Amino acid sequence: MQTKLASFMVGTQDGDDAQAIIGKCVHCGFCTATCPTYQLLGDELDGPRGRIYLIKQMVEGQPVTKKTQLHLDRCLTCRNCETTCPSGVQYGRLLDIGRRVVETRVERSTKDRLLRYALARFVPERRLFSAAMRLGRIARPFLSSSLQAKMPMGQVPRPSPTGQHARKMLFLEGCVQPAMSPNINVATRRVLHALGIELIAPANAGCCGAIRLHLSDMNSGLDDVRRNIDAWWPYVEQGVEAIVMNASGCGATVKEYAHLLRGDPIYSAKASRIVALTKDLAEILPTFSDKLRPLIASHERRRVTFHPPCTLQHGQQVRGAVEGLLRSLDIDVCVPSDAHLCCGSAGTYSISQPALASQLRDNKVAALDATKPDLIVSANIGCISHLAAASKTPVRHWVELLDDMLSDAVR
């Protein structure tokens, strides 16, 4: 596909990237077969190929309308199309470029602007979000059913492990996870502690940047990225083994740091080093399976269904690792028939596109229920909370299951 850039895109990083990415598309349409929004809406412009055409028109200088904005807003950025694409089109990066262009060309409604501003300024701030969650739980009986669904019940925190280890890894605790489901982080610490690994979470590290970047607040998102690199860098210089991510959405974003800062003379080399060190928990724990197996106490065999988040299987291209590890620990694991499809959480998508998000969630819950599980596990806090709001079966992070199974002697 040939692209003739408009003058405002010529010589820019976004323009060069858009031209290269669009040039790889061969119009085959394989992507539409695996696009969740195309399956629901049946509109070519609500599938990756159609959106690529819209972005092509934008960067060539053709008019941008609210209809263009709507079709790009409806994309989940699940990147299932990237897994399907035989030509290696980096659709997620192209969509980010297209959305940035739209933000400069089409004015949003006051309601929409306020919502996006609130999400960008509120959700990534851990203290504000935690305080709001506490207030929300107090007021839960008086909230609407839709708000109650987004307000998970509080957890009784489990004790974190104490003691130091020679082996050390950095750990990103996340911005919403400590408030919504704090035991995910505790379980991560406890399991790695049992394996002789100490996790370090610098206090000045915060949101990975995903929320603001996906809302096209590029400057603030890159501030988040640079802040995290600054927070981690002294420990990188001291030789930490890895940077652990237990929320696959955060992991997918941090693994983009080198691309995001490729033109930054101060941070580009550091960002590349950060990316090389970043590992999802699903990449780390399977390497310790032989050591982990003796630490597991005898347990009742339950049927567990794994929901692989899009950010793990498509964003990070990590597939089969969680299921393989759990099966090696004698857990009966299955995956739903639509495992490749998004559940509809997708960061802030369930807030900005509630109708589509609910349809996708209901479809996913039906597919999960069809496996008749005793427990549903996933690898991203957004998916977990989104599914738990509609599922009668408990939904947890898979590392919490491992923590439950650890022998009391090693906790």
Walk me through this protein's architecture.
The chain has 411 residues and is of the alpha/beta class. Among the domains are: 13-105, Alpha-helical ferredoxin (Fumarate Reductase Iron-sulfur Protein, Chain B, domain 2, Orthogonal Bundle), CATH 1.10.1060.10; 297-410, Rossmann fold, CATH 3.40.50. Helices cover 52% and strands 7% of the residues. It is built from 25 helices and eight strands. The chain has helices at 13-22, 30-33, 36-41, 48-59, 66-73, 80-84, 91-105, 110-122, 126-138, 145-149, 177-180, 183-194, 210-214, 218-238, 248-254, 257-260, 268-277, 281-284, 289-292, 310-315, 321-328, 349-352, 354-369, 381-388, 398-405; strands at 167-171, 197-200, 243-245, 278-280, 303-306, 332-334, 375-378, 395-397. A four-stranded parallel β-sheet has the order 2-1-3-4. It has a four-stranded parallel β-sheet with strand order 6-5-7-8, sandwiched between helices. Helix 24 (381-388) links the parallel strand 7 (375-378) and strand 8. Helix 1 crosses helix 7 (91-105) and helix 12 (183-194) packs across helix 25. The chain is globular. It starts with 12 loop residues before the first helix and ends in a 6-residue tail after the last helix. The relative contact order is 0.10. The model has no long low-confidence stretch (mean pLDDT 92).
